[in-house]
Amino acid sequence: MPFWAQLLALALLILCSAFFAMAETALMAANRYRLRHMAKRGSRSAITTLWLLDRTDKLLSLVLIANTLINAMATALVTAIAIQSFGHDDNVITISTGVVAFLLIVFAEISPKVIGATFPERIALPTSMVLKPLMTLAKPVIWFVNLFVTLVLKLFRIKAGAHAHEARLSPEELRSIVLEGGNFIPQKHKSILLNLFDLETISVEDIMTPRSQIEALNLELTVDEIKRELTTCYHNKLPVYEGEINRIIGILHVRKAVALLNQEDELTVEHFRELLSTPYFIPQDTGVFTQLQYFQENKERLGIIVDEYGEVQGLVTLDDIIEEMIGEFTTSMPGAARADSFGWTEQGECLLEGATALRDINKRLGLNFPLDGPKTLNGLMLELLQEIPDAPISIKVANCIIEVVQVHDQAIKVVKLIRPAAKRAH
User: Which helix (H) or strand (E) holds 317?
Assistant: First the structure.
């Protein structure tokens, strides 16, 4: 062969080797979820790519067989060129082997594989249209080679494809995908998706209105006092109890009760009792996502949370769960929005009520208070101090200084959070 023809053949062999190396890397790095989305939209190349990826053993066999043969041919060709040009000498063969190894590593391995990993889908889609017919043509060779591969795997007791169907994403992996979505997912949508993942890990106790803050109606009051409470309440539904909050006997629809106030007959407590609907009780360790399903199945919107002794711990509504998913969209009481919209001041301080939920503090202030114990700031402080403080005291938790400002009725009512960096600046 003429010298130029030999060089042209060598260049073609290196290009073919680069093609298979680049195709292999691109196919292995391609995003299968994106490919499935494209396949559902009718992309033939995406369908072909998924077909190849479902036959990974045969695909890798084709690529490696082709690459090995091409690289062997390139090595032989370079050696032949070197012998023809410089004679049959051991040093010539050694140098030619080093040259062909360098050419293959740079131009047929590293460079094409870097390109394939950088643009996986862009390269995998067109190359799959070439690899599929090649796989059909090379089917006998692939079958013959795989006979020996299967034998080797059996010797090591390895079952090919045993874990192929177990590669499913965990919730934490899905969370990572959402977090890395970048500009492809709007920030609000990203926040909603992340909140949905959290529903599996939190219980109704984490989002409930605590017992001390429940607005409820006591039927042991006089009718005039009941009327006064109904006309000044801020909710559509009220839990109703007799004597003390643990004896809840029903749920009162305020609109129905207000309608009674306009009647001419004399009102009695029994009139209000007749309007009560059956209360819906929830164990305090019920998961939020599970409770959302229970609300849907039982056609309920409000539940009373009780502990293992049957004592009332709090109240949760369907609105509470929805706000946990999509963020706050409504306020049930005047001033509620202002009470929740806390943040750091320019001095790095934040004044909070002791009843503020730790989860809300972590979300709004970017802190990392522990959530596996007490649910409120007051509970956290009492657990750490092991007593109710009778004087101003400070404690450092999760790199944040918590200073007790006011204690009242055996509870810490007001605290001040101070970021250490802000304190040092002063």
Answer: strand 312-317
Dump pLDDT digits (tens) for 268-310: 888 888 889 999 999 988 999 889 999 999 889 999 999 888 8
Average pLDDT, integer, range 338-358: 79
Please state the domain extents for the chain. 3-162, 204-326, 342-425
- Of the candidates 381, 376, 371, the one whose C-alpha atom is nearest the C-alpha of residue 404 is 381
3-state SS assignment for residue 403: strand
According to CATH, the topology of domain 204-326 is CBS-domain (3.10.580)
Task: Name the fold adopted by 342-425.
Answer: 3.30.465
Helix (H) or strand (E) holding 42: none
User: Measured at the alpha carbon of residue 200, what is the angle toward residues 195 and 205, in degrees to the nearest 5?
Assistant: 90
Q: Each residue of 228-259: pLDDT tens digit?
A: 888 888 888 999 999 889 999 999 998 888 88
DSSP state of 393: -
Tell me the whole-structure pTM to 2 decimals.
0.60
Question: d(Cα 60, Cα 66) in Å, to the nearest integer?
Answer: 10
Burial of 404 (0-12, 13-18, 19+ CB in 10 A): buried
Contact indicator for 358, 371 with CB cutoff of 8 Å: yes
Pairing of strands 302-306, 209-210: unpaired
